[in-house]
Amino acid sequence: MREHNGRTFVEGTFHNMEELLEIIRVLRSPQGCSWDRAQNHETLKKCLTDETEEVLAAINNRDDENLCEELGDVLMQVLMHSEIAKERGVFDFGDVVQKVSDKLIRRHPHVFGDVKPPETEEEALELWKQVKQREH
Q1: Given CA atoms 96, 102, 104, 107 in this order, what sign does their dihedral have?
Q2: Nearest-10 crossing angle of helices 64-88, 17-28
Q3: Chain center to CA of 5
Q4: Higher per-residue pLDDT: 55 or 10
C-alpha cells in the first residue's frame, strides 16, 4: 500500500467526508490517476448523466443497496466537479455546501424563519416557488 500525504487509504475501513475529499485530491494529483487528472467539467457531463440515471433506476427497482452505491457515485461526481473548480480557483466543495445550506434555509422560512408553517405539502411547495421567484 502506498502512502499519500501522510495517509494510507484502505478499502473496508471507516471513511468520513474529509477522507473522501482527500481521496479525490489524490486521484487528481500527479501521483494519482491519469484518467481522473484528465477530466474537466465537459468530459464529466456524460458520467454525471449516467450516474443520475443509475440512481433513478435503483429507485424504480426499489433496490436500496444499489441506491446507496449509486448515490455515492453521484456524490463522487459533485466532488470531482468541485475539485476541478477549486483547481481553477473559482470555488470548492465548501462553497457548494455553503450555497446549498443557505438556499435550504432561505427557501424554508416556515422552518428556519418566522413565516407561518404551511398546512399542506402543496402549500409548502407554493411557498418554495414564491421564495425561488423572489430570488430571480
Answers
A1: negative
A2: 60
A3: 24
A4: 55
Q: Which three cell numbers stand for residue 38?
A: 484528465
Helix, strand, coil percentages (3-state) for the chain, rounded to 5, are 65, 5, 30
Q: Which residue from 49, 7, 42, 50 is spatially nearest to 25, judged by alpha carbons?
A: 7
Instruction: Name which residue leads in pLDDT, 3 or 17.
Output: 17
Q: Which residues contact 77 (CB under 8 A, 6 or more apart)?
A: 44, 47, 48, 51
At residue 130, the 3 state secondary structure works out as helix
| Cβ neighbours of 115 (radius 10 Å) | 12
Cα–Cα distance between 92 and 71 in angstroms, integer?
20
pLDDT tens-digit map of 91-125 = 999 999 999 999 999 999 999 999 999 999 999 99
Amino acid at 29: S
User: How long, in residues, is the chain?
Assistant: 136
* C-alpha 94, offset from chain centre: 11
